[in-house]
TrEMBL record, chain A:
CDD domains listed in its UniProt record: HATPase_RsbT-like
InterPro entries linked: HATPase_C_sf, HATPase_dom
Keyword Cell wall biogenesis/degradation: no
One Pfam match: HATPase_c
Keywords, comma-separated and alphabetical: Kinase, Transferase
Histidine kinase/HSP90-like ATPase domain boundaries: 35-134
Entry's Gene Ontology molecular function annotations: kinase activity
Organism, as annotated: Ornithinibacillus halophilus
Protein name, entry field: Serine/threonine-protein kinase RsbT
Automatic annotation (TrEMBL), chain B:
Organism field: Ornithinibacillus halophilus
Pfam families in UniProt: STAS
Domain of life: Bacteria
Entry's Gene Ontology molecular function annotations: anti-sigma factor antagonist activity
Name the UniProt record assigns to this protein: Anti-sigma factor antagonist
UniProtKB/TrEMBL annotation, chain C:
Provenance organism: Ornithinibacillus halophilus
Residue ranges constituting the PPM-type phosphatase domain according to the UniProt record: 123-334
GO molecular function, a single term: phosphatase activity
Matches recorded under SMART domains: PP2C_SIG
Name of the protein in its database record: Sigma-B regulation protein RsbU (Phosphoserine phosphatase)
Keywords: Hydrolase
Family annotation (PROSITE patterns): PPM_2
Domain of life: Bacteria
InterPro entries on file: Bact_Sigma-Reg, KaiA/RbsU_helical_domain_sf, PPM-type-like_dom_sf, PPM-type_phosphatase-like_dom, PSer_Pase_RsbU_N
């Protein structure tokens, strides 16, 4: 059975740290290795930072999941920001990193095992990711 | 390679002072400054090339672009104080006959 | 055992041996194993992790502060790992683009292929080398039904793909003109209209078009803002500029072009070029037109094709074999 998700509201930089902490605690509890813990925390960091920088206000949901005898952690980033007009552009390597120094969404995709993004202009963005714990 | 571009407005006119080398790397900076200025209706733009010691064909392309924009917007562009090496590009390409350009003034006042 | 496990135990072994005796051999081993890591796309955080594992197995009583510090190091490596993966991806993408361009360059070569006319009155040498893979210079020979030879040399501003695409347009426009229109000035006038309608406002093309009449030995020519060529007089052994006024193509749709003529005598040589020849830089220094002429002078006694190739080699050498602009040179020698 999946646990009920916990979430963190993101509207100040400090919230990014709280989201990382929550993700790390949960991944530790699930028995993720040190490297995976670090990857999950970094992915959460990127997602939360995106909300903080571009949407001002949003949530990071973190939950433990179990599917077909596999355990993992699901991270969902949801915001009511301006939305992303061209998703394939932001998913392109070298696009987001050229300006800032973040790993960008392609980085999050690499850090996680499953990645799904939906966005509507003027409404917001939902990014749904899963990391399976080996 | 360095370029510096200074824009200043002098009663109804815009004077752009350019210095350095205009080549494939610096031409985009010139384009960014100059095109919006000449695209204003009836604008009067003077580009001072006194301190431009080299310009390649990419730079010339930017000026051609500006010249074409003046025809659409009924504005005017004048390029002054061209050094010999740069002036030569205008004469070879025949642009000295269609564009308003002046070579560098010798011995002070013309 | 999978390769990662083999590498892990090998790493542990090397580490142990180094900690015990600081020998160079284990460092050499470390260098070798790093290469397999890179080959197998092992990320930096995984290597740090490997190190932590090996260390805790070898020395279970390590200081807790030290263990924490290693975990701290691992965290800092995550972003490096991502940057590395991105770099790998972009490198692959670049090589893919490169191969696409090389295919395009072949298409362009086929498209712009031109045959040098063989006539008794004229010996023709030509060389055209792109700075990058695709050529923004264009040259073309046409042999008319009346026996005249048309020679076009053109330079699109800029280089690379945009210039090359533009060149293809010129080629098709030229092919579409009826033969009776093949006078230098009317060719340029027609071409100018095509170019003016079809290019980006910051793009322009320069062209020199010449027509040689073997019967009279006369060369008719017009220039659309093209770098002036040179005429070598066989009697005086001197060079002079082939001056011709005319606006570059693509500025005004109603430009007209003046037609000039030259009487060629036996041994006279006409040199047509693009500004990749006269505007090239040797190191940080520009090569002036006069210096370019000095180089041409050194080889002018050779048969045209050989001269063109030698002159190119000379310029290539001057620029440290790294051409900055497309380079095209045509040499015509009046034989009889």
């Amino acid at each position: 059975m999946n646990s009920s998700p916990s979430y963190i509201n993101i509207n100040k930089e400090w919230d990014i740290v709280a989201a990382r902490q929550l993700a790390r605690d949960m991944s530790k509890k699930l028995g993720a290795g040190t490297v995976d813990q670090a990857r999950i925390a970094t992915a959460v960091s990127e997602l939360a930072r995106n909300i903080y920088l571009y949407a001002i206000d949003g949530k990071i949901y973190i939950e433990a999941i179990e599917k077909m005898e596999r355990r993992g952690i699901r991270i969902v980033a949801e915001d009511n920001g301006p939305g992303i007009p061209d998703i394939s552009l932001v998913m392109e390597d070298g696009y987001s990193t050229s300006g800032g120094l973040g790993a960008g969404l392609p980085g999050v995709k690499r850090l996680m095992d499953e990645f799904n993004i939906t966005s509507e202009e003027g409404k917001g963005t939902i990014i749904n990711t899963i990391k399976w714990v080996r | 390679m360095e370029i510096s571009i200074n824009v200043k407005e002098e009663n109804e006119k815009v004077v752009i002072n350019v210095s350095g080398e205009i080549d494939v790397f610096t031409a985009p900076q010139l384009k960014e400054k100059i095109i919006p200025l000449v695209s204003a209706e009836n604008a009067e733009v003077i580009v001072d090339f006194k301190d431009v010691n080299y310009m390649d064909s990419t730079g010339l392309g930017v000026l051609i672009n500006a010249y074409k924009a003046t025809k659409v917007n009924n504005s005017h562009i004048k390029i002054i104080n061209l050094q010999d090496r740069v002036y030569r590009i205008f004469t070879i390409t025949g642009l000295d006959e269609v564009m308003d350009i002046n070579p560098v003034m010798r011995g002070g006042i013309k | 055992m999978d390769t990662t496990k083999i590498d892990a135990s090998k790493y542990k072994m090397l580490l142990k041996s180094y900690i015990e005796s600081q020998n160079e051999q284990s460092l050499y081993g470390a260098e070798q194993i790093t290469k397999t890591f890179i080959k197998n796309n092992i990320l930096p955080e995984e290597i740090v992790n490997l190190h932590i594992q090996a260390l805790t197995e070898l020395y279970p009583d390590l200081l807790i502060e030290f263990k924490h510090s290693m975990n701290f190091l691992l965290e800092t490596m995550i972003s490096y790992g991502l940057a590395h993966q991105e770099y790998q991806y972009l490198r692959e993408k670049q090589s893919q683009i490169k191969s696409e361009i090389s295919v395009a360059a072949n298409v362009q070569d086929t498209l712009l292929k031109t045959t040098v006319p063989q006539i008794d009155e004229l010996d023709i040498g030509v060389i055209s080398v792109p700075a990058h893979q695709m050529n923004g210079d264009y040259h073309h020979f046409i042999q008319g039904k009346d026996g005249s030879i048309g020679i076009a040399i053109a330079d699109v501003i800029g280089k690379g793909i945009p210039a090359a695409l533009c060149m293809s347009m010129i080629k098709y426009a030229m092919d579409s003109f009826p033969e009776q229109l093949m006078r230098p000035n009317s060719i340029l006038e027609n071409l100018n209209r095509v170019v003016e309608r079809n290019v980006d406002p910051s793009m322009f093309i320069t062209m020199f078009y010449a027509q040689f009449d073997p019967d009279s030995g006369k060369l008719f020519y017009s220039s659309a803002g093209h770098e002036p060529g040179f005429l070598y007089n066989a009697v005086t052994k001197e060079f002079q500029d082939i001056e011709a006024r005319g606006l570059v193509l693509g500025i005004n749709s109603d430009s007209t072009y003046k037609q000039y003529e030259l009487q060629l005598n036996k041994g006279d040589i006409v040199i047509m070029l693009t500004d990749g020849v006269t505007e090239c830089r040797g190191g940080k220094k520009f090569i002036e037109r006069e210096e370019a002429l000095d180089i041409i002078r050194q080889y002018i006694h050779l048969p045209p094709q050989e001269a063109a190739e030698m002159i190119y080699k000379h310029f290539e050498n001057l620029q440290d074999f790294n051409l900055k602009d497309d380079f095209t040179l045509i040499i015509l020698e009046k034989k009889v």
